[in-house]
Amino acid sequence: MIIGIDVGGTYTDGVVIDKGEILDKVKIPTKPEDLLSSLLEALEQLIKASSKSEIERIVLSTTLITNLIATKQIEPVALVLIPGPGINPAFYNFGVPDVYVLSGAIDYRGREIEPLKEKEIQECVEAIRSRGIKRVAVVGKFSQRNNTHERTVAEYFAKNAPEIRLVMGHKVSSRLNFPRRVVTSLLTLATQEKYQNFYLQVKKALEEEKVDAPIYILKADGGTLPFEQSLKKPVETIFSGPAASTLGVLALTPPEQTSIVLDVGGTTTDLALILSGKPLLASRGACVDSYLTHVRAFATKSVPLGGDSVIEVRNGNLEILQQREGPAYCLGGPQPTPTDAMRVVGLTHIGDLRKAREALTKIGNELHLSPEKTAELILENVTRKIVAEIQKMFLAWEQEPAYRVWELLQEKKVRPQNIVGIGAAAPALIPLIGKKMGCQAVAPPHAEVANAIGAALAKVTLCRTYHFDTHRNFYFVEESGVQEKLPKRLSFLSDAEELAFSLLKKEGQELGIPSDEKPELVYSEMFNMVRGWRTIGRLFDVCVQFPPGILRSHLQRGDSGVS
After folding, report:
1. Coil, strand or helix at 287
2. CB 136: neighbour CB atoms within 10 A?
3. In angstroms, rounded to a whole number, what is the distance separating the alpha carbons of residues 519 and 508?
């Protein structure tokens, strides 16, 4: 028995699944100012419908981090950068006012080519303290090769400004690309404290309910993190909502299908793509406010258009605005919305028909149209906007390496013919969108809670980043901090990758991951350590993981979706 909960911008959805059947599902309005209470309300209802002792796990998908960043509610952070030669930090705008640049440089091989200057560090600490900033991210170029400079600065802060909370870039990400590591470190530190409060309150609520099942949080790439482990990198949970909707479509449709995922919510419409049963990944990482990060994520797009988008007439023209001001008029909200239009033409039975007609009469009077014709015009505009966004998204998708490989395997230029709609408004809108695009439109059973189903059925994944050092004959694991002697000689990158797979499989078996699960390589890098014109060893950075997916063992036989 598993529980999945997705806290969306408009609704919080939850399901209890046991042996391929949905025992219970809930859909309650989300309180944007208090996401935690929405989650706990859904959780409380779901627990009542299940046997506490039989709950195997609870998986959460939350918009907490996304909302904090989108609404600029993140904590102020100062950046202390050590870029070295060849890069001008002024060229990058990281969106924060407090950026301090220190001398010092590490080259791509991990050698110090310019030392730090203690006076600069001292002045930097004094400036930050005078500004009253309590959080600092220290990021050096090539710090993943040699973190000495970052540690030196961190130790100086710890000794002279112990009240300041600090993260080092090499601990947040070990991948190359200095600007992305800066952004990822910044967002990690800026969201950590509020995420920790969220974590503590959820844990407390479960303890009060006497539920001791393991809790997982869904990541942007559809993988799961143990809830406690997510405290280190809460930014990994950004875009977990679109990831949940993508996994929900995987669960509710036959395997190996190629589909456009269309999650129509009250506030936004999320787009994603599944190619032959595999969600398309963004090769450059999650993009947050136009900044690229090292967060692995599905290739998704969130469009500010949903069932509760405000509709107005401006200068004699019908306009669908990008904001939501509450529920649909037919549900007691303040403004006419697409949901009211769906209600008037009979595409949905949600809400009060009389109030829906009242809302569209007001709009129609300004356009000299009947409520029915007004509704048709609204739905035509909504459909046209969503189709245009899908077509624009395809231009981005087609640039992804995984899409190009898939297209080559098809031996011809082809686009997916399935468009699968989920979310509360999907059953009404998806036939209209499918008709306009010439696609087969699919609105699967339980489409309104597909995100929660996707969260519930997300595989327990395991991702490990191994740093192998042949000179010192040891390795350490970034996520767990484990340090061990190298068990074998490593000469080539392929040797390091083979060892990483072996270590991951062993740990996976200890966690109960089936032995037939095949891990995948996320990335690998090698560089030589040179001293006095002689290579003295090699460093290998290898990241491997059991890939995200859904637990088909928890689906009905035939893999056609949960019942």
Report:
1. strand
2. 24
3. 10
What are the tokens at 372?
């029915």
DSSP class of residue 169?
A: H
Q: How far apart are the first and last CA of the chain?
A: 14
Torsion angle in degrees (nearest 10) through CA of 179, 181, 186, 188: 150
Work out the number of other CB atoms within 10 angstroms of the CB of residue 316: 8
**Distance separating alpha carbons of residues 246 and 244, to the nearest angstrom:** 5
**Cα separation of 325 and 558, whole Å?**
43
Looking only at the bridges linking them, the beta strands covering 2-7 and 57-62 are parallel
Give the H/E segment covering residue 203. Answer: helix 178-208
**Cβ–Cβ under 8 Å, residues 454 and 548:** no
- CB under 8 Å to 399, separation ≥6 — which residues? none
Distance CA 278, CA 402 (A): 10
How far apart are the C-alpha atoms of 546 and 544, rounded to whole Å?
Answer: 7
Which tokens is 33 given? 């100012």
Contact status, residue 462 vs residue 504, Cβ threshold 8 Å: yes
Q: Mind listing the pLDDT tens digit for each residue in 144-194?
A: 778 889 999 999 999 999 999 999 998 888 777 888 899 999 998 888 888
Secondary structure of residue 237 in the 3-state scheme: helix
In this model, does residue 563 exceed pLDDT 70?
Answer: no
CB 29 within 8 A of CB 10: yes
- Mean pLDDT across 526-533: 76
User: How far is Cα 522 from Cα 345, in angstroms, rounded to an integer?
Assistant: 49
Among candidates 457, 409, 417, which has minimal Cα distance to 434? 417
d(CA 49, CA 356): 34
Assign 557 a pLDDT band (cuts: 50, 70, 90).
very low
For the chain, the average pLDDT equals 87
Using the 8-state DSSP alphabet, how is residue 129 labeled?
Answer: H
Strands 418-422 and 259-264, by their bridges, are parallel
HEC profile of 501-550: HHHHHHHHHHCCCCCCCCCEEEEEEEEEEEECCEEEEEEEEEEEECCCCE
Mean pLDDT of 379-401: 91
